[in-house]
Predict the 3D structure of the following.
Amino acid sequence: MSWSLLFFLLVGAVSLAAALGVVTSRQPVHSALFLLTNFATLAVLYITLDAQFLAAAQVIVYAGGIVILILFVIMLIGGDTNDFSAAQRAWSRTVGMALGIILLLVISYSALSRMMAPSEDTAALLQGGTPEAVGIELFTKYILPFELVALLLLVALIGALVLGRQQEGASEGIPSVKANE
Amino acid sequence: MLELAWLILVFPALGALVNLFVGDRLGERGIHVVASGMVVLSFVVSLGLFFGLAGLDEHHRTATVHLWDWITVGSFHAPAALLIDPLSVTMALVVTGVGALIHIYAGGYMHGEQNFQRFFVYLNFFILAMLVLILSNNFVGMFVGWEGVGLASYLLIGFYFDRHDESYGHYADAGKKAFLVNRIGDFGMLLAVFLIWTSVGSVVFEEVHHGAGALTAGAATAICLLLLLAATGKSAQLPLFVWLPDAMAGPTPVSALIHAATMVTAGIYMVARTHFLWELAPVAGGLAAWVGGLTALMAATIALTQVDLKKILAYSTISQLGYMMLGVGVGAYAFAIFHLVTHAFFKALLFLAAGNVMHGLPGGELDIRKMGNLRAKMPTTFWLFLIGASALAGLPIFSGFFSKDGILLHVANFNIPLYLIGLFTALLTAIYSFRAVFMAFLGEARDQHVHDHAHESPAVMTRPLWVLAFLAVVGGALNLPVLLTMEHYLEAAVGAPAFHPNVTMEFVLLAVSAVVAVAGVGLAYGRYVKGPSTGVGRISGGVARLVSPLELVARNKWYVDEFYAAWIVGPLLGLSVWFNQVVDQGVVDRAVNLVGQVSLSLGGNLRKMHNGLVPTYALSLFCGVVALLLWFVIGG
Amino acid sequence: MDTALLFDNAVVLLPELVLAVGVMVLMMVDIGRRGQNGSQLLAGLSVAILLLGIGASVMIWGRAPVEYLDGAISDGFALSVRLVILIAGVLGVLLSRNWFPAIERQGGAFYSLHLLAVIGMMLMGTATNLIVLFIALEIFSLALYILSGFYRENARSIEAAMKYFLLGAFASTFFVYGCALLYGAGGSSKFTQIHETLATGGGNPSLVLPGIALLLVGFGFKVSLVPFHMWTPDVYQGAPTPVTAFMSVGTKAAAFAGFFRLMMTALPSFHDQWAMPLAILAVLTMTVGNLTALRQSSVKRMLAYSGIAHAGNILIALVAGTAAASSAAAFYLFAYAFMNIGAFTVTIALERQYGNENDVEQSRLAGAAERFPVLAAAMAIFMLSLSGIPPLAGFFGKFLVFKAAVEAGWAWLVVIGVLNSAVSAYYYLRIVVAMYFQQPEQAGDEKEQPFVPASRSSVFVVVVSVLAVVVIGLQPGLWADLLRGLGQ
């Protein structure tokens, strides 16, 4: 067993454990921290695949941005517990878990059983992970999607604006819900 | 002249539009004049077409009037074009001729009704749709008319939508029933059109006719079976006849025009129009004959037990349509169309006469048990009804005698059991039609109140009937035995029959039919006038006992409605309830209610809503994911 | 790379570009506007921009199809779908005008999101690349999530948005997973490239089928196929009715366009494998949609289930998978746009009569024909068209789809489809029956309510839709010629 494989298994195991932690821990803060761990280990895995740019993006955007945002929200609304779906949802949790396991098995079966080795030159493929290579690809071959993402961000921006704007009227913050609802 | 054929469609369309938009300014009289006038004009055009065709060479009496290219998609082409041939012209003459008389009559009948304007708009629209049906030169155009007449019939059956009684239930439901049952027939029609297109490559009648030789027997049979389904829906045959009796909830002129004389014969027309397909599918033809024969018999037995005058006529219509179906089934297309024409005359006459009875009795009474001796109060109507009933019963000289006998003649050649069924039905027909005459117009007045208030109808409601009565008497002359004028005329459109009876057989069967009809009238006379104790009465009593086991079944309309309710409508509604309660209310509504309670504190209360339903939906989605994936990976 | 490449063939995306520039202008105008009346101006501006978009589409109509930057194409199919979406967009904007107070305050945001949603939908029809496809999907989905929650005074609207967003995100994850698997299978994100690689025996064919399955989930969610349909009635009912009207047509057109192009250009060689599962989904969708619609009391919910059933009908065209079938689907969507938006417009007008409830119960329609003869007549036409009565537009949509399927050898599927449309007549007809053949229960107080005149723009929408439904029905050939399928 090579060192790189051992390293992969180790980091992968941490990553999986952290992911499990996200969904099983009862404290939202714990979940967020597990998520952070998960993102970090993924970044490490990206580096082992020579995807340096992706790893950096992972750390900056996900670990640095998104998880921090999540932590802010949890602190603001007071995350005592996330145990919304206790007893009465037990069956759906079981069913969901069972389905998830089936999904995993089926996909790994179909992906692994008849997977062929990549025919292309692996060395050339590995070059794809550097910031320079990503940049060139992004601004030549994938320029159209890149531009379109700008539109997507615009939608998100306007959406955030709409959602974040306080309602007008006397009852700031409390929506004037009709009594019949 | 033939190029002007499009005018025949323009007039009723114009009538409907004028009455729709400016009808409220025209007043009753104006509306009536416009609506009837337009149909009369259409009738004039039809006459023009008839003479135009007559001027053509006998064997090429067919013309196509191209209006515009309607649909062209890839190789699929359906023009908006009219096919003018003896068959369509005959139908157009009946529709516009009988239609015009009924329009005129309806002016008196509907006098003072709240929705007078709406009624005539619908009626003109019906004429338009019916003409589209019979004049289109392709299946798609015919289907448009087919649906159009269905829509018109639905609107007119539900005309008295606010009424409700024990005979029809909610009147609006009767319309809905008619529409939905017809949709089952339409389903057959649409599939047949697809099948014709894929197997022949055209939907134009002429091209299909020429290309039909390429059809395999299996394809032809499948097409014809689907067409038969369509015909059983529109022409109220087994097993889809249940809507027609309920359709009598509409105003009587509608019953006369749509549900007796014209629309219901569309199925027969369609089979005659596609005769070239049926000749390739003897199995389907045989099935059509049996469907027709059994429908005729069954409806006749039911008609014997009904007490509502209009329902008697409704079942008799089903029964007569059965004869026509029997006729087309055995390949006697010309005779079926002949019977269609004479039936249009005498059945319209009977319905309108029944309308006069209804109009003249207090409360629109239709129960023949409460009538009796109406002859004294409404002599004109009595004579009119008597003429109609004689034609229906097939008494010699009257038109129904010749047309019905023509069909039976061909049936006798085709299959003896079917002939006997037809003959027995003819006996029943004579009995029930004269039962109605005797119980309503002769004998003692059974309900003095009804009798005292009875009165004759105004002239506008009797004069058009004399025209129909005249036609009902002499209509047989259109196709007298041996001369066979009409049969030869229709040959250009429906082909010559394969079977030519010899004259001896023809007259023997004519005599048999005549005897049967007279015997039927005699039996009815014995039972309903003389009473059971007399000699004739005893014979008819014996016959009655003979068929008494049938009577209970027949009185309950052979339980067909109940069968449908239990086996088709029930399960379907059950399934719908299940979907609604389990999927929608069980999961969704309960969740929505939960959210409703929560939403007062909606501000930051996302989590409870989350608890409410999204997981359930997500779970359903997830199940779909896994199922699909399993299918693809394991199945593929 | 040469910068000229960016501009070569950029005309392919001309309508999208026009709209994108329009969004910018709209936002500038919004910043500059003063007072409350500005939102009328914004509505007018949006309509103008959308009409310009239609003009741009017409301008590039009939050109030889070229691909732009390996990610977008403007062939006849893309243009047909664009036309449907732009029409839905125009009608949707016209309906939104004056509809709810939030528009007065946040008109700029509302109309820009509306236009952005239109851009995203149009891109779905043009995308020839998995990445572009996914981004397009997200653009319009995100915009619609927010639009459906725009009626913030109404709890149901917020609930609908939340539900739509969560489930949409859930479905999107499967979609993107499917994209990844397909990329892994074909070694490219380009549809045609994937097809070539797989057809010549390269790539990883074992990844294709799971990839299709997961992509199906994403599309199935958007067009609301059973069992991915659960959100539809809630969202349709909760969202502001003008948004529902636009969404019901636009989403369906966009997602089906992407779906058709993906399946027919990237995966035609796997037709044998995916046709049967899709056929079964179509049967399920039609049957569940129609049967559940039978029991709905709310008009909007009924229309939602009817929309599900219609999605099943269109799916039949995809199962057939021929060029003729795709043009039939384009025709179907074109006809559906008018009849469905028309039905929703009448619903909006009736909502106003019954006091702005963002929904109408069917029982309240009783006797509507007496009180609002014109609205009732229009509604009757839309219902008849939706149920497929000839010669209205809806009939020919169904007719062409079924015809194409029969030609492709899917007769049994067509039999089920035709049976289903017979069932559907029941609930469409019930609306007509209620309006024409029933008396209002409490006639007294219904009559006392004053008649609220419908806004001019919604009257316009109704008139246009009625005319379209009738004209398309009388001259279907013209439109069927105009609307092209894939590879035509």
